[in-house]
Specification:
Elements (H helix, E strand, L loop, with lengths): L4 H10 L1 H21 L5 E9 L3 E3 L2 E3 L2 H18 L2 H10 L7 H6 L1 E5 L5 E8 L2 H23 L4 E5 L14 H26 L6 H8 L5 E6 L24 E6 L1
Parallel strand pairs: 7-8
Antiparallel strand pairs: 1-5, 1-6, 2-3, 4-5
Length: 255
């Protein structure tokens, strides 16, 4: 017989202590981990523009073909930034940070729009001041090295990151982590409870016998402690069953 909604509710109420315990344990572990081990991550960025214009009558005039060419070159520039050619020079200029080119590449992100000549170089670090310094340095080194790499001088810095104290951590906050831990632990604990009940096919009391087998209970064998064995020599009382049911007999088993 498949359980109905009342049966599901009975299972949840019966195992509510286990569900609450798992949820509280997971949320507590998340809070402790965030307090002791998790570090905030900051992101600083520098904006550059890729721009080339024709000179007509002594004036720089934009050309649509050149603009399209500049936009197409941004994808190439993204690949160049994330190479040891640029990052090794950045690491060499800041030996105090003891960072390798590979570590700089992993922490660097380059963003741009498909229809814009502006691109942004972002650097992530656990130190706000270090994030600002390295983001700006990557942009400057790229600007200085691109004429030798591509034989074209068309990169200009638009804006740099200058205020480490104004950076806000981009890592997940404690509130979000606790909410996520609560939801995941609640789903996991409820699933575990229902799975345990589904796998358990034993009959635990007279009510289960009536419910699942639709049969009366003939006898129930209880357990007593060995220390209680000598306290009474009289047999366990025999109680009369309901009208029409076989007589239920209760025994006691020595443990």
């Amino acid at each position: 017989m498949e359980p109905d909604m009342k049966e599901y509710l009975r299972i949840l109420l019966k195992r509510g202590w286990l569900i609450c315990g798992i949820v509280l344990l997971c949320c507590g572990a998340t809070a402790v981990y965030d307090r002791l081990y998790a570090s905030p991550v900051y992101e600083a960025s520098i904006k550059l523009i890729v721009n080339t214009a024709n000179q007509v009558d002594g004036l720089m005039r934009p050309d649509s073909n050149l603009i399209t060419s500049n936009i197409m070159m941004i994808d190439t520039y993204k690949e160049i930034i994330a190479t040891p050619v640029i990052m090794q020079k950045v690491a060499a200029k800041h030996p105090e940070y003891r960072l390798t080119a590979d570590e700089l590449i992993r922490k660097t992100r380059v963003h741009s729009s498909s229809s814009s000549q502006v691109m942004s170089i972002a650097y992530r670090d656990e130190s706000a001041a270090r994030a600002v310094t390295l983001a700006n340095e990557i942009g400057r080194v790229f600007r200085d090295e691109i004429p030798q790499i591509m034989n074209v001088d068309n990169v200009t810095i638009l804006s740099e990151s200058n205020n480490p104290s104004g950076l806000v951590p981009i890592s997940l906050g404690l509130t979000f982590k606790l909410a996520l831990a609560f939801i995941l632990s609640l789903i996991a604990s409820v699933s575990a409870v229902f799975l345990k009940e589904y796998m358990d096919d034993t009959l635990k009391d007279e009510k289960d016998v009536r419910h699942y087998l639709d049969k009366p209970t003939l006898a129930e064998i209880s357990k007593i402690k060995r220390s209680e064995l000598g306290k009474t020599s009289r047999p366990a009382p025999v109680s009369a069953g309901a009208a029409g049911d076989p007589l239920p007999i209760r025994f006691k088993q020595q443990i």
